[in-house]
TrEMBL record, chain B:
Record's keyword terms, sorted: Amino-acid transport, ATP-binding, Cell membrane, Membrane, Nucleotide-binding, Translocase, Transport
Protein name as it appears in the record: Methionine import ATP-binding protein MetN
CDD domains xref list: ABC_MetN_methionine_transporter (cd03258)
Gene Ontology CC: plasma membrane
Function (record text): Part of the ABC transporter FtsEX involved in cellular division. Has ATPase activity.
Amino acid sequence: MQPLLRDACLDTLFMVWWSSVWAVVGGIPLGLLLVLTDRGALLQNVVVNKVIGVIVNLGRSLPFIILLVWLIPFSRMIVGTSIGPSAAVVALVIGAVPFFARLVETAVREVDHGLTEAAQSMGGGTFTVIFKVLLPQALPSLIAGLTTTVIALLGYSAMAGAVGGGGLGNLAITYGYMRHETGLMNVTIVLLIAIVTVVQLAGDLAVRRLNRRSGRQSAPVGLRRLWAPAVPKPRAATEAAEPAKTT
Amino acid sequence: MITTTGLTKVYRSRGREVTALDGVDLHVREGEVYGVVGQSGAGKSTLIRCVNLLERPSSGTVTVAGQDLTALAGRGPRANAALRSARSHIGMVFQHFNLLSSRTVQANIELPLEILGVSGKERERKALELLDLVGLADKAKAYPAQLSGGQKQRVGIARALAGDPKVLLSDESTSALDPETTRSILQLLRDLNQQLGLTILLITHEMEVVKTICDSAALMKGGRVVESGTVSEILATPGSELAAELFPVGGEPSGPDRTVVDVTFHGEAATQPVISQLSRTYNIDISILGAAMDTVAGKQVGRMRIELPGRFEENVVPIGFLREQGLQVDVADIKTPAPADALLKEGAK
C-alpha cells in the first residue's frame, strides 16, 4: 500500500511540475502577444492577434479528457511514448498553456497604460516596455494566475489515468472508486487537499509580499474561488477551469 | 526651442473623424516657461503628446532643440532608434505621476538611465544627486506607495531630468495635487527653469498655474491656438479672452449714471499709485468693483474694474488720464471685441 501511494504521489508531482514549467514558458509569451498585438498596442497586428486568440480559445474549449486521448499520436511524436506520466505531460501542457495565457493577458492588461507611455517618453522601446514595465508590474497577478494554473493542473492530472499516466487521481478512481477501497480514496483526497493548500498558501504569500511592498491591497479577486473545484474527481476537475476564466 | 508648424491630428474610428489638433503653430523660446491652457477636449493633451511623438501627428512638423522629430521618426508606426534617442533627452512629467510601483524611488529614477545604458554605479550617483535636487534625499529606498502626491511628483520630475534634458514637458503635472502642493511643485519647476535653464512646456486647465510660473501662454479651443504671446503681451491685447481668464474681474455698477471701466495693468507703466492720483487730480470718488492684481518682479500686472460717478460723457477726461499713464482702459458696457491677429503672428515667429 505504501509504495502504491508514494509512486502515485511522485507521478502527480512529476506531471504537475513539468506541465507548470511549460505552461509558464508557453503562456507568458502567448499572453504578452495577445496584449501587444491588439489594436492600438505596441506591436499591433490584427492577423496575429486573431490567430492566437482562436488557438487559445480552441485549446480552452476542448474538455481535457478528450484532449488527452486526441493527443495520443502527438505525444508519441514528442516524448516517444503514448502512455505514462510523460505522455500525460504533453496533454497537460497543451491544456495549460492557453489557460495560463489568458491569465497572463488579463494580468498584463491591468498594467496602467500611463506606465508604458512613461517608459516610451524616456526613449524606451518594446523590449524595455515588456521587461522593465509590463512583466515587473504584473508580477503579483502573474503569480496569482500561476497558482490558479498549478491547482487546475492538479485537477487535470487526475485524468491522466486514461493514458496510463498514474498519479493520485488515478489511484483514487481505480482503487477507491472501482474497487470500493474507501479508505485509500480518502487518503488520496487528503493528500490532494494538502498539496492544493500548500500551493495556494505559497502563492498567496508571494502575492501578498509583493503587494505589500508596492502598496497594493489584498490579493486579486477570485483567487480563493478555486478551492472547491480542485477536488480531484474527473467531472469536477473539468469544471475547475470554468470559474478561473473570470479571474 | 520647441516649434510646431501646422500640427494636425485626426483620429479615425469606425468611419468617424475627430480633429483633435487643427493646424497648431507653437513657438517656445529657449529658457522660458510656456503654458498652454484650455478646457477639456481642446486638444492640449494631444498637443503635448505630439511634441515627443507619443502621438503621431497626421500632418505638420515638430522641431525640438533644432531636431526635426517628425522627419526623424519616419513613416513607420513604431519608434525607431533615432526617435527613441531624441526622446531620452526630452523629459516628461505626468498628471498621475506614472511611477512604477514595483520599483523603489531610486530605481524609478534609474529607469531612464538604464534605457540609456548607463552603468550601475553611475546610475546610482545620478539618481541620488537628482533626489537631492528635488528635496527627497531621504526617500531613495522608499516605494512610491509610501509617498504623498507631491513627493511622487517630485520623483516624477527627478526621473524626467535623468536624461539631462533641455526641454521638459509637463502634462497637467499639478492637476492631481492640492493647492499648497501645487505651489511647491510650481516653485520647483520655476527653480529648475532658472538654475538649469530648462525650457518648460506645460499644459494645464488651471489659470493659476499660468499666472504663477509662465512667461508665455497660449489658449486652445477646438484644436486651435486662438491666442498666444507673453503674459504682458496678452494683457496688452484689447478684448483678450486669455487676459480675462487669467485676471477675471466682475462687479455690477452700484446705480444709474455710473461709468464702469476695466483697467488693465500690463507691467509697463503702472509703478505709480494711479488710482489715488486719479481721485486726487479730478476730485472724484472711485469705487473698486473687482480686481485681480499681482505684483511680478516689482511690476503690477492684472486687471481692475472701477466705477466713476456720472455718465461716460462726463468721464472722458479722467479716462484719458488713465490712458496717458500707459494703461489699457475699456469701458465695460461698450464692448468692442478686438482682433487678436497681431498676437497670433507674434506667437508664430
